[in-house]
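Schema walkthrough. Field components (list of strings):
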Amino acid sequence: MNDSNVFADLAEETLNIIISIGSILPYLAGFIAIIVASQTLWHKLRKSVDLGDSFNSLKTVTFGDESTVVSNKSASVLSVLLIFVLWGAFTGSQLLPGFLHVPGPFMGDGQFTYTADNGTGQMDTASVNVIVHAAGEKADKPKVEAGDGFATNDAISIQVYRSKLLLWDKNDAHNRKAGASIVKVDGQPISKGNAVDVGFARVALTDKGTLNIVPHKGVQMESIYLPSPEKVWKSLVSISKDGYQNVTLGEHLGFSLWRVVMGFIIGALVGIPLGYAMGLSNWFRGWFDPVVEFMRPVPPLALIPLVIIWAGIGEEGKVVLLFLAALWIMAIAARSGVSGVRITKIHAAYSLGASKAQILRHVIIPNSLPEIFTGARVAMGVCWGTVVAAELVAAEKGIGKMIVAASKFQNTDIVIMGIILIGMIGFAIDVGIRLLEKYLVPWKGKG
Amino acid sequence: MADLHIDNVSMRFDLPGGGSIQALKNINLDIKSGQLLSVLGPSGCGKTTLLNIVAGFLAQTEGDIRLDGDVISGPGPERGMVFQQGALFEWMSVRKNVSFGPDMKGVPKAESAPEVDRLLELVGLKEFKDKAVYELSGGMQQRVALARCLANDPDVILMDEPLGALDALTREKMQSLVLDLWKETGKTIILITHSVEEALLLGERLLVMAPRPGRVQKEYYLPFAELGVGADLREVKKHPDYNSTREEILSMIWEMEEEIMGRTEGEG
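Field assembly_structure (string):
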């Protein structure tokens, strides 16, 4: 492939992306309108309740004053609520009152007529009864009378979100072989390749002369693309009870967490001393700087293929990968923790008679703890992301493995449940480390 | 007895881009035990360099410094140091900070505790001993630093602008405290300062240093520190010699500053 092709391809892709963005813009504008409208409403509501004057509420300059901008809890609640409402509305969730649902697919009975020409200019009209039934249900074709004329009435049953061909001439006196063809559907003229809207469906005349009935799908998402919230909840309940593919949910999560914790602990055990050595010795700094600076920008995900080749898809490989993900982050955090110690503290300790070992123990290590905790938060986040990605590639157990297996069977409910669990656990890890930090290094940022 | 002899000390170092700086040139000083010496001078006169050499954080290139006859070659507990700020260990309580020296020496808690309590009371922080140091105000933090230094019972206390970061009112209170501590403990104190008033009030002996090369310009022996012990420092300032000495030193330093400015302008 030559270069101009690449440029042409990239230009085309860029154009596609711009067009996609353009098509999203109206929805985005609508979403922003909802946010602003709810804000206005909230302010009106709040004014009716006297909350007293906080110092911030007395500030007249708030636009641009960072200290007056705090996360509004009500907005957060509303935002999450809206996500669930939209989710429910577009999946026809039973948790929402029906009037909030966006139009769903057509279900039930419908009827339209077609007019056939028997090839000699003689016309006859027959009706088609359609029944659209839910997935997994069996629905018999409605019984219809034959009717008069050479074209007899037809009946057909279609599963929701599917379409069906109607061989209308099968029961007619004049079939297509004999030169019969359809000229009108529901009274509207139709020709091959074109379609007519019959109210509940689109009816197209195929090139072969049959009718393709496509019942309207509405704007709700099919469950295979986006299952409803209650369906996801049900799959969470059933999987936490019975497991998925003979592996319990606890096992999936436990394996993922165990890998992360192992990789992180080993990474910290190696990385922190390495960082200290780099922060305390010219020689070690010089020795490891090129390695650390080279490895730091390599995303751990890029190492997955190599780790699989070297260590296989077993546990060692994944722990090695997470070790590598945590190692450089922890080394850099420890290094900057050591470098960040104020020289006056070191001087003070020396002139109070402390030895080098005592200075390391009582000054350098405690002084570096806040930086190390910051590093630990970043490292745990990266490890959690990496383990899921690694399990997507190859694993027997693990939350990433669970969602990739579920996606192969199009169990979208399990995929979404897995994504929610991954997000919640990642958040819980971050909050946990922050609490630990608050408890163990209360002096952070107060030096 | 802990006499400090600074014998013909010079320091010069090479700059990375070539050339060198003569930070100190032929400094000779004899500081008697119990003396309160304040050192004053424009920036770049080498006063902090001199203090760091005495503390043992820097090495002179010529001459030597003896404390009680022992040559100084590195930091040691017999020379305590009080910094401008940020030298406390914020991961330790006030009490732990003060007992840091004895703790490092391996003195049992039970033995060091009474002295630590006495010092905390001396600096007026008895009720704050279990607080974290970052919960204290700047002035209180410097009092902790003083107590921490004293807890180690050094022969010489080196102060590098210890009150420089404090507001004017707190600073005046702290100046009285330094004088009281000096009288109470009888320690030799070398105090570096930017403030002429502080140098006058806290200097039994006052050294004015000049830059390029760093050297001693003039020396004063002053009565104000002795007068200020236990007294109102504002009364001391009414002393007939106070203002004249202040004006003399100020104009001396102004002259040096002018010279530095002129020189850099000429170079530029």
